[in-house]
Amino acid sequence: MTIRAVVWGENIHEHTNAIVGGVYPNGMHTAIAAGLNEHPNIEATTATLQEPEHGLSEARLAKTDVLLWWGHKAHGDVEDEIVERVAKRVWEGMGLIVLHSGHFAKPFKRLMGTPCALKWREAGERERVWVVNPRHPIAEGLDDNFVLENEEMYGEQFSVPEPLETVFISWFAGGEVFRSGLTWRRGAGNIFYFRPGHETYPTYYDANVKTVLKNAVRWAYNSQGALTSIHDAPNVPVERALEPIVERGPRLHKAGEEGYK
Amino acid sequence: MTIRAVVWGENIHEHTNAIVGGVYPNGMHTAIAAGLNEHPNIEATTATLQEPEHGLSEARLAKTDVLLWWGHKAHGDVEDEIVERVAKRVWEGMGLIVLHSGHFAKPFKRLMGTPCALKWREAGERERVWVVNPRHPIAEGLDDNFVLENEEMYGEQFSVPEPLETVFISWFAGGEVFRSGLTWRRGAGNIFYFRPGHETYPTYYDANVKTVLKNAVRWAYNSQGALTSIHDAPNVPVERALEPIVERGPRLHKAGEEGYK
Amino acid sequence: MTIRAVVWGENIHEHTNAIVGGVYPNGMHTAIAAGLNEHPNIEATTATLQEPEHGLSEARLAKTDVLLWWGHKAHGDVEDEIVERVAKRVWEGMGLIVLHSGHFAKPFKRLMGTPCALKWREAGERERVWVVNPRHPIAEGLDDNFVLENEEMYGEQFSVPEPLETVFISWFAGGEVFRSGLTWRRGAGNIFYFRPGHETYPTYYDANVKTVLKNAVRWAYNSQGALTSIHDAPNVPVERALEPIVERGPRLHKAGEEGYK
Amino acid sequence: MTIRAVVWGENIHEHTNAIVGGVYPNGMHTAIAAGLNEHPNIEATTATLQEPEHGLSEARLAKTDVLLWWGHKAHGDVEDEIVERVAKRVWEGMGLIVLHSGHFAKPFKRLMGTPCALKWREAGERERVWVVNPRHPIAEGLDDNFVLENEEMYGEQFSVPEPLETVFISWFAGGEVFRSGLTWRRGAGNIFYFRPGHETYPTYYDANVKTVLKNAVRWAYNSQGALTSIHDAPNVPVERALEPIVERGPRLHKAGEEGYK
């Protein structure tokens, strides 16, 4: 079993900001994918905003088990059609891991149904990521906390739906806290949001962060194949009811008619 | 304290289908609102698809504590701008109660972030609604189950996010089950989905159904006022950090700059 | 409507430790109750470990809407019979608010079914309590965070079940975080754990803490009366089945026999 | 990787009731274990009430990855010490799968903290188990529903804590519904309750039921080893605080002193 992961990168700051370009000379997405490819059961490739269909064609997504998403400056440039395509695949069972400033990415907001807003500060301050759910698969191999010496601060309230489980909570030197690792299921798809990863710091080279992303890809992976029926609202005619019933009273739809959507 | 409820009705079947028109001569929304108005602390009015802005102007929604939504045939005719307006108000704390075929209504799908699909059958079969969460405020005054002798069947899988709490589960004569009462919070807003209410049956005159809707309005009501800050992603500058910190390392944004959305 | 609250206090440190006695000359429970009694709809009385049945007779509990619990040094001295009595009333719908070191109180551990352990440090350090769920009834009237200048530190992992909702998360000067406000429902009873309240500091005189406790009592209150049926496992005989069925195949129990417990 | 499962059986009805003895001549536990042993990565053995320490010595449990529990008539005969031992191992990460009448088993009630009561009827009626969470690992390989032609009825309200996820809901011919597959995490341990399995019917030979149990064992398995620290409440002294702090104000405990439990 090999998990086919695609790391989607906005791929702009690396080219327009010397600091980011210096930290990630081949792009953030490439660095993230390289970290994943250290693991034998993960095969990570990349896709970027600039490619046709942002690198996420129907055919590509159909072969993607887990999608990781990093975006920041150009959320608005992501085509709505691609956003719907990603959401559709998540409902069918594709895993989705949303990174850092991706909290405002269109596919994440689409799947959460909430503003996904938060407080922020760019001061290179210390972040301590605490494991509040040890033995959760995403926390495998971590100590009870780990430090990122320089990170952007994100502070609560993080306006997302109550998660299935809270895995990480961050402490910031400037006084804020943040739920840094949260899980949800949407349809058949597993979703994980992971907070760290500001573009001006080498966060994605950090050993603990790499461990989290590897764990998250494995956790989000659904081996059971696409649940394409999730989009259907099938009529079950009276004559095919599981228990014998007799039609009674008036009805709106003619036999065999489609439902309204 | 009076809770200002607005019952939104699609208001089509009542005029195009003789059976529905016979059951609800003044419209389904009017019947639902009348049931709510039997209670001294609820002041229910109505809004319909056909009114300007579907009856849901900014000003009207700003004065709405709880919105109830019944739609079926014309989900697609609801303007996207109004959908966003409703979602925004829910995030700020307006309650939302989605009824029956409203599972496919745009505002519900927008807030759930999932397909919200299900199985269905129009056979006037018996539905038993079971209370699985007695003493939940929405179940107040009900027995352990109640019967709707003629209803449309909805069957699982109902592709919505795992709820905060499951209040009701329905049994259908034809062999299906359905989670008929589910709660979620999205931002500051309480959301309740309630299954019964097919337009060709007098469901909204049923005493138990009326009790549920009255309870749900009270449960969904948030007395604390609009959380307008939920849309903001404020920067917290270093010099205003709660704990004294010193800026370190590079940053992307200039002081005072807005974040990217 | 008046909510009858009982504040249970262990009532030991106040008498054996001069500092605690100085801060709370009439006992912590008395100070907490006094704070609640500032509100017209709450009528708070107290009970202590030293009273017969720890002040929690069957009759007293039957008239208690919400129980608050502060204990620390003498968890082991609480009689198991009283613990079961409290749990039983919670299942029937009595609210329970567990304070600070009460995380290890027998009734809380009984109702959680987990160790309820945590890290701790007594250094009088600064605690910032962040609201992660604004407009939750328990957070009414609070800013986005409030400070307790001197508190004991509690650190994660807090080994409790995943809550219904997370209301507060605390930041500590020494680097830890803690989920300081968590809600659960157990049977018909609402449970809230609130972290602050170390006995050597005047925490229960703090205006924000008092607001939280008042809000929590209101939130935990269940106006629907005791769900005494929650303890029953009734047999539903074939002849009283809701839908007509015919008995088939072998059975273990004779008609009218009790089930095994 | 081989998952070490232990199937615990009460082992009474098989010897005292001719029907049960006829259906399960070697005991229900043996039949359940045999079903699991059809799968190469599961190694299932059995333990019974009658063995010393009910077959669950410290040493045995230390080597158990997932424990399955079937009991009915003799819940009260299970020693409290063994119950605590099981709970402790679940908190450390051992999976627990509770079967049918095990809803009243001491370890389950201990871990849930609720009455775990329900309605019941022994009429050999038809049960339809519906999958409400397709692609959940426990539902792998199942259709959208499956039938058990003769089963005992269990009806709501099932007084357990709100689950992490609802996987199955059952429909019964006599008119009831039941949440038949529920998951929880307690400490580091995964818990699954599965409803079917009345002793007078051949339920554990059913192909779908066998699939569910195999899936559940795999789902409940935690490969990360025992989280023995879950029982600890460690003091973090000021001088070892992660962030430099200075002790302020009074304290109760002397340096190095244990906390109260």
From TrEMBL, chains A, B, C, D:
Domain ThuA-like: 27-220
A Pfam short name: ThuA
Signal peptide start and end residues: none
InterPro entries: Class_I_gatase-like, ThuA-like, Trehalose_catabolism_ThuA_prok
Top-rank taxon: Bacteria
Name assigned to this protein: Trehalose utilization protein ThuA
